């Protein structure tokens, strides 16, 4: 992946031959079956495991699995949790699984849960942002998506009974965003990409069309109990975007085709953990993801949420 900049012709977007060359350089570094499917199977007694799709890439087969509440009730509001849209963002995948294992039960009287912890299994195994077609799934949550990873989980979520009131999409911002993935994006598209200052700490991304600032604040306050919140840069920004409040920026998640925009849930947040900070370790990153979900749900339990018929 670090050699992406020399693939293709500088200033010219990649063609199929370039994509194939890039794909041939990717190697499997960890096991989706052992690290994701195995832990999900252990939860089968408490939740319903659903295969919502299958993928086959380069001789490797992936079963896309989601978990739903066993005692699902349509009149109960639903919480959607997604992770692993970018396969290299490990704590999102493991944080979703950890939440279901250790915390979902105490909220189950008030909410249904639907969880897709690893949307991009090939990306998880190769520690990659893109899928094998060099497509970023987190820019492909659109109609007629070119990413099967995005299209399949969108279809699954759209067919869930009842109403989704909140969506937590669990992500990371890493040093490799600047050293690997943005240079790769520049090479793929033939357009040089500006780098941004990587913030040291957790932040959340809300939706410019439906920002839900009190909900975002509850997420930040919960995470602050387990890890540090990202400061702004000298311009009052995080990754080049002006903050809306402490630790929160807003994106047009629908217009950008981001995962957080795939439902009309009134409460949506994208979490961003920074795993390369000297202040954290892998466990702390997982705990930050769990805290984000718990903080948001704790906020929702205090609201008068009306389910539309």
Lay out the secondary structure.
Elements lengths: L15 H9 L7 H11 L4 E11 L2 E10 L8 E6 L6 H13 L1 H4 L4 E5 L4 H6 L21 H11 L5 E9 L3 H14 L13 E5 L5 H11 L13 E2 L2 E2 L5 E4 L15 E7 L8 H20 L8
Parallel strand pairs: 3-4, 3-5, 5-10, 6-9
Antiparallel strand pairs: 1-2, 2-4, 6-10, 7-8
Helix pairs in contact: 3-9, 8-9
Descriptive overview:
The chain has 309 residues and is of the alpha/beta class. The protein has a single domain (4-301), classed as 3-Layer(aba) Sandwich (Aminopeptidase). Helices cover 32% and strands 20% of the residues. The protein has 9 helices and 10 strands. It has an 8-stranded mixed β-sheet with strand order 1-2-4-3-5-10-6-9, with helices on both faces. Strands 7-8 form a two-stranded antiparallel ribbon. Strand 1 (47-57) and strand 2 (60-69) form a beta hairpin. Helix 3 crosses helix 9 (282-301) and helix 8 (213-223) packs across helix 9 (282-301). It is globular.
State the gist of this model.
The protein is of the alpha/beta class. The chain has nine helices and ten strands.
Task: Assign the CATH architecture.
Answer: 3-Layer(aba) Sandwich
Unreliable spans: 1-5
Percent in strands: 15-25%
Number of spatially distinct domains? 1
Q: What spatial form do the alpha-carbon principal axes imply?
A: globular
Strand order of the largest sheet: 1-2-4-3-5-10-6-9
Number of helices: 9
Number of strands: 10
Major sheet description: 8 strands, mixed
Mean pLDDT: 95
- CATH C-level class: Alpha Beta
> Structural class of the helix and strand makeup?
alpha/beta
The CATH H-level superfamily is Zn peptidases
Q: Give helix and strand order, one letter per element, not per position.
A: HHEEEHHEHHEHEHEEEEH
